[in-house]
Amino acid sequence: NHIQNYLNTINTPWGKLFYLLIWHPLESVTGKNVLDFGSGFGITSNFLAKTNRVTAIEPNEEMIRNSICTNPYRQITGGIEQMKRLSPQTYDVILCHNVFEYVDDKKKYLKEFQCLLKPDGLLSIVKHNKAGKIMQKAVAEYQIQEAIQLLNGKNSESEAFGSIKEYDNQELENDSDQAFSIKKTYGIRTFYALQRNEWKNDDNWIQQMYQLECRVEKIPEFRSIAFFHHLLCKKS
Q: Which residues of 135-157 are buried (b: 16+ CB within 10 A; e: fewer)?
């Protein structure tokens, strides 16, 4: 079961570290109205619900059945059609993490985000970064031919979600018709996916690697080869 495999990964040391690195740029988000679109297992919704009013939208019913909800938040089953039912200019923060790689038309989603965000609202995007993916394929996975195919423009595949359509950061601004501008870009998973998994069960591994990843997340040379980018965007 691909969903179960994905859920198992979340509970590994590297799965936990991934979310810690996503969350720390969002530490100032407190006392806000938050929309988590494509909320998956609700991990980030649950985290932010400690100090915020969170609405989560997710189309995959199996993921919702296995979702984490130790802190109360509103869960909606569906996609963009459910987002259209929400009141305009309601949210201070909208999250869209690892979603746009699996949709055909980013523009229509960005248009809805623009409508739902307050004038000074924040849009948080987590996305794949092709250079980091090529680095992992060539170095950690020994899949040199796949690395070459990615360089040639071929999409990679996710067992759980299908074809992964990567896009660059500037494309996001263009698809929003300049309604959003990227204010900050963080690299995620710069180093830790290149290490052997057996090293990652050391008691100090998460703490030490978290410190290292945070040190380089905004340095362009390192950020350019991170597997993911976390973009913080403001309404223009």
A: bbbbeeeebeebbeebeeeeebe
Dihedral sign of CA atoms 103, 106, 111, 117 in order: positive
Whole-model pTM: value is 0.94
Measure the CA–CA gap between 192 and 213, rounded to whole angstroms.
Answer: 8
Question: Which residue has tokens 């909320």?
Answer: 39
Residue 66 CA, chain-centre distance (Å), reads: 19
Q: Which run of H or of E encompasses 216?
A: helix 205-216
Residues in the chain: 236
Cβ(46)–Cβ(110) below 8 Å: no
For tokens 């990843």, the residue is 213
Left, alpha or beta for 16 (phi > 0: left; psi -120 to 50: alpha)? alpha
pLDDT digits (tens, 9 = 90+) for 101-142: 999 899 999 999 999 999 999 999 999 999 999 999 999 999
Mapping DSSP to helix (H, G, I), strand (E, B) and coil, where does residue 33 land? Answer: strand
Lowest mean pLDDT among 6-10, 17-21, 209-213, 221-225: 6-10
Residue 59: strand, helix, or coil: coil
Q: Which of 130, 111, 221 is nearest to 176 (CA)?
A: 111
The answer to whether residues 189 and 230 touch, using CB atoms and an 8 Å cutoff, is no
State mean pLDDT over 178-204.
93
Instruction: State the Cα–Cα distance between residues 135 and 130, nearest whole angstrom.
Output: 9
Distance CA 192, CA 190 (A): 6
